[in-house]
């Protein structure tokens, strides 16, 4: 931020002419290390193009774009010439504000200057004797009160008085009438009641221009001093002409005005009521400014010149702000429009100006005499394109192979969902019309959802749609979108902005539960946006189909009608991607990460996928389909058979037993795990338990939840992982500073060791819930022995106070350093649980959620098997047990290898348990051991998979 300081002002200079003055200015810039001496030619060339006289005895000399290379640092200097210097053949200047600007930071100073030009300051500038006086003159603020329609917001959702203050200050700040800090001085103690639920508050600090904003809440709110529905927020300063303000206050005291203010009114009506400036309902055209350095003096001059060629009035506003004449240079500069902001031009009806709008907008697009910088269309264009991110489809053959993600064979006509493209204008003109559009769109989408609810027979799907209806009726959502509308956005822009922002916040939590909500939000978001943008959504085929998509969120999968969606084929994603995990849980066959080319498959073409091998057949022969039907029938029978025996042990033919446990993230899923044959909970992801709460659950709540799991387990062991937040799993109520590499940052034990109180509380809740039942506590993300010892020390302190029988304490092995140090760690811990998802990510240095690479992050890579082997041998040498709780534990190709490596426990999602148990019953432990030794010698994950295929086919 630029601040004018007295040290930047050079007083009492003399120059016989403009050339000498320019030289003098460059000398100042060079001396202050802002430019090199060559900048002089830039100043001269610019003056040759047109004098930089601004008005009121002030000029703003600055270089041409070509001379920017001579700028070392952006800066502004002021030179006072009391005797004056002839500048443009007509006017003398007494003050030169010389600008060396690399970017647009100086626009702010120009804004301040142009405000000063609303006053007659030339004599004061000429006769000033000190630098401080010059600064004071320039920083003089207009004495009129700004009050216009855009400073009024109705139907605002507020929950307390702070929300009122925040909304009122935000309106003022958006229009640059107050600066950051204004809000902090608003104190409820200073509220003054005008009448009933109408109150005023005022602030004198951080005020750029005196102004009034009005916030009307959607309902009356109780607060300490009484009731409030309308807040009138006054930003004032000493130079304000109080007559205008007093007039407004008098007006507010009139009972008829009060009555109307307390009834539901549009902001347009309120504006009329209190005599605020009203946005004229003129023809308009928006355009985004693509000049890298903003609307500074030169392009603004061009804009003025073009606008002046039309007789009719032309006004312009920036991003929903107040309208000013496009024919006034100072007014344009005062807008401070920056690159990427939207200028909306309006033209006086029935004049040549209406026709002129197109020419003006075109001139702005062309850069007003400057080079333009391409704009990020999706974010800033007046015509916004909202679309799902995806990579360009490379024109190569359709793929025959993807990553096997969810077991089973599936075929059917392809239903290809391509990324959606929506086009809409960002700024609207008619608030009422935009509100109506939104209402109609919401009504239409709700109607469609009602019909879907009537059609579907599956309860879970009904519930999902029911939840969508609730989301669409959520008063908070509607309120937030209305706030966007009140800021002049179109219904589509306001809707998309809110949905995207809300979905991003949810998705960032990376919790499957909340991510589901993000996907749901985007889903209903797209539905409403399609209506607003007249886009037709593709119709679902009648018969069971293969859903082909770029990627699928867990929410997408969860709401799939299993009777309609035979299988899933995606362009990106890996076996440990969320969509794959949910597809497995639902038992829908899936092949993921097949490449963007799959989006070229023609809708209705028959596709056959094999969720066990990753094979894809496009338009297969009839015999292949028949074969697939036979195989599928066999698979179905195998599953049914496996389910019948799921409560039996997983014992190999040569009597080697492996414990089979379940991974859960929801307390209530314990019962389902037991039903599916889980012999223990092998991983309770407590961060997911935490995420289900809006704020950190206290010790009592935690104890209650852990107790529920242990009760349901009825004597079976419970392996609990302490909080594994941080990195990609932030907890909203546990803020962590933004990190460049969150996976390598404050995560798991690294975080909780820095918040020992949080860890201690969780440990107390756990040991108190145990009551002598088999509790195993493990710490996540341990990479160094010191971390393990520090965590163990905290637990020991807890145990000294709350003794706990039948407790084992272990660590997750998911960082390669922990696997390598296993011989040392094994002496101290009771068990290891290998988290192959993270161990694979950190060993192969592939982000587990990477949209393209994650398919290559195969846990059967020999490097990971070597680490598992090392950990198992180290543990067994000290009679400790080892589990695997990553996704690998349920991979049919990995099961014999893990068994052969000597893993004692496999923990997986509940639905995988019956088949894995059945598979183990067919294996021979001695063979598995041999297989594992050969796998350790392989050179790649593919080689390991081929080996398993060959020996265990
Ligand atoms: C793992 O990393 O394998 C693991 C089980 O932990 P999470 O997937 O929760 O990170
Ligand atoms: Mg992990």
UniProtKB/TrEMBL annotation:
CDD domains: PTS-HPr_like, PTS_IIA_fru. One of its GO terms (cellular component) is cytoplasm. GO terms for molecular function: kinase activity; metal ion binding; phosphoenolpyruvate-protein phosphotransferase activity. Residues 282-371 form the HPr domain. InterPro entries: HPr-like, HPr-like_sf, PEP-util_enz_mobile_dom, PEP-utilizing_PTS_enzyme, PEP_util_AS, PEP_util_C, PEP_util_CS, Phosphohistidine_dom_sf. Residues 618-652 form a coiled coil. It holds the Pfam family PEP-utilisers_N. One of its GO terms (biological process) is phosphoenolpyruvate-dependent sugar phosphotransferase system. The keyword Repeat does not apply. SUPFAM superfamilies: Enzyme I of the PEP:sugar phosphotransferase system HPr-binding (sub)domain, HPr-like, Phoshotransferase/anion transport protein, Phosphoenolpyruvate/pyruvate domain, Phosphohistidine domain. Gene3D superfamilies: HPr-like, Mannitol-specific EII, Chain A, Phosphoenolpyruvate-binding domains, Phosphohistidine domain, PtsI, HPr-binding domain. It is an enzyme of class 2 (transferase). PANTHER family: PHOSPHOENOLPYRUVATE-PROTEIN PHOSPHOTRANSFERASE. NCBIfam families: PTS_HPr_family, PTS_I_fam. This is phosphoenolpyruvate--protein phosphotransferase.
């Amino acid at each position: 931020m630029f601040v004018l300081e007295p040290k930047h002002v050079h007083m009492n200079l003399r120059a016989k002419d403009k050339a000498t003055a320019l030289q003098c200015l460059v000398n100042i810039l060079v001396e202050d290390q802002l430019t090199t001496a060559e900048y002089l030619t830039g100043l001269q060339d610019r003056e040759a193009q047109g004098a930089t006289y601004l008005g009121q005895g002030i000029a703003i000399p600055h270089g041409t774009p070509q001379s920017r290379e001579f700028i070392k640092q952006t800066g502004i200097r002021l030179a006072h010439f009391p005797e004056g210097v002839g500048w443009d053949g007509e006017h003398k200047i007494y003050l030169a504000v010389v600008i060396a600007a690399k970017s647009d930071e100086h626009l702010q100073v120009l804004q301040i200057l142009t405000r000063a030009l609303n006053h007659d300051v030339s004599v004061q500038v000429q006769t000033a004797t000190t630098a401080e006086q010059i600064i004071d003159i320039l920083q003089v603020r207009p004495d009129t009160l700004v009050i216009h329609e855009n400073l009024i917001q109705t139907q605002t959702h507020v929950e307390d008085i702070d929300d009122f203050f925040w909304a009122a200050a935000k309106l003022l700040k958006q229009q640059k009438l107050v600066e950051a800090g204004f809000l902090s001085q608003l104190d409820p103690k200073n509220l003054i009641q005008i009448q009933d639920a109408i109150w005023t508050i005022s602030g004198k600090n951080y005020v750029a221009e005196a102004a009034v904003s009005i916030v009307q809440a959607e309902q009356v709110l109780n607060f300490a001093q009484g009731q409030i529905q309308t807040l009138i927020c006054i930003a004032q300063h000493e130079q304000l002409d109080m007559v205008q303000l007093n007039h407004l206050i008098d007006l507010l005291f009139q009972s008829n005005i009060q009555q109307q203010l307390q009834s539901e009114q549009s902001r347009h009506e309120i504006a009329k009521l209190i005599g605020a400036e009203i946005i004229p309902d003129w023809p308009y055209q928006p355009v985004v400014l693509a000049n890298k350095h903003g609307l500074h003096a030169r392009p603004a001059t061009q804009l003025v010149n073009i606008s002046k060629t039309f007789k009719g009035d032309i006004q312009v506003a920036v991003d929903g702000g107040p309208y000013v004449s496009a024919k006034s240079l100072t007014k344009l500069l005062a807008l401070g429009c920056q690159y990427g902001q939207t200028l909306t031009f309006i033209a006086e009806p029935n004049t040549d100006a209406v026709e002129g709008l197109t020419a003006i907008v075109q001139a702005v697009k062309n850069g007003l005499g400057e080079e333009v910088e391409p704009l990020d269309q999706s974010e800033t264009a007046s015509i916004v394109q909202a679309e799902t991110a995806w990579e360009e489809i490379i024109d190569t053959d359709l793929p025959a192979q993807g990553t096997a993600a969810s077991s089973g064979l599936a075929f059917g006509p392809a239903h290809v969902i391509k990324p959606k493209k929506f086009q809409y204008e960002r700024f609207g003109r008619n608030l009422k019309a935009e509100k109506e559009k939104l209402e109609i769109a919401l009504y239409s989408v709700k109607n469609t959802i009602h019909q879907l609810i009537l059609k579907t027979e599956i309860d879970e799907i009904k519930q999902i749609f029911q939840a969508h209806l609730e989301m669409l009726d959520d008063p908070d959502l509607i309120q937030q979108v209305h706030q966007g509308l009140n800021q002049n956005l179109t219904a589509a822009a306001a809707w998309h902005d809110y949905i995207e922002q809300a979905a991003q916040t949810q998705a960032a939590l990376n919790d499957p539960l909340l991510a589901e909500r993000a996907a749901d939000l985007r889903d209903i978001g797209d539905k409403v946006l399609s209506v607003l943008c007249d886009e037709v959504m593709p119709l679902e085929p009648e018969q069971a189909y293969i859903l082909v998509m770029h990627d699928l969120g867990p929410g997408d999968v969860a709401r799939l009608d299993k009777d309609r969606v035979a299988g899933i084929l995606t362009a990106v994603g890996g076996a440990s991607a969320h969509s794959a995990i949910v597809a497995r849980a639902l038992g829908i066959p899936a092949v993921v990460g097949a490449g963007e080319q799959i989006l070229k498959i023609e809708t209705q073409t028959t596709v056959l996928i094999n969720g066990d091998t990753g094979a894809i057949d496009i338009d297969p022969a009839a015999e292949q389909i028949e074969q697939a039907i036979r195989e599928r029938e066999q698979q179905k029978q195998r599953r049914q058979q496996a389910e019948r025996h799921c409560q039996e042990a997983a014992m190999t033919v040569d009597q080697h037993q492996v414990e089979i446990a379940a991974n859960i993230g929801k307390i209530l899923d314990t019962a389902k795990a037991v039903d599916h044959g889980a012999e223990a909970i092998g991983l309770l992801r407590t961060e997911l338990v935490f995420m289900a709460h809006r704020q950190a659950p206290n010790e009592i709540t935690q104890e209650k939840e852990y107790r529920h799991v242990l009760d349901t387990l009825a004597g079976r062991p419970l392996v609990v992982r302490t909080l594994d937040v941080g990195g990609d799993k932030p907890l909203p109520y546990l803020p962590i500073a933004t990190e460049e590499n969150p996976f390598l940052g404050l995560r798991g034990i690294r975080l909780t060791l820095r918040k020992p109180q949080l860890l201690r509380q969780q440990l107390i809740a756990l040991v108190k819930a145990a009551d002598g039942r088999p509790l195993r506590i493990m710490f996540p993300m341990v990479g160094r022995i010191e971390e393990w010892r520090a965590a163990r020390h905290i637990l020991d302190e807890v145990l000294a106070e709350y003794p706990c029988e039948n407790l084992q304490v272990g660590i997750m092995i998911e960082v390669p350093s922990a696997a390598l140090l296993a011989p040392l760690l094994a002496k101290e811990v009771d068990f290891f649980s290998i988290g192959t998802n993270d161990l694979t990510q950190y060993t192969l240095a592939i982000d587990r959620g990477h949209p393209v690479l994650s398919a290559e992050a195969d846990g059967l890579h020999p490097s990971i098997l070597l680490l598992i082997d090392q950990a198992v041998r180290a543990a067994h040498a000290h009679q400790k047990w080892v589990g695997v709780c990553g996704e690998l534990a349920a991979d049919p190709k990995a099961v014999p290898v893990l068994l052969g490596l000597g893993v004692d426990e496999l923990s997986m999602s509940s639905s995988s348990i019956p088949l894995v148990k059945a598979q183990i019953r067919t294996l021979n432990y001695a063979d598995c051991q041999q297989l594992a030794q050969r796998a350790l010698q392989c050179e790649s994950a593919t080689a390991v998979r081929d080996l398993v295929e060959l020996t265990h086919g």
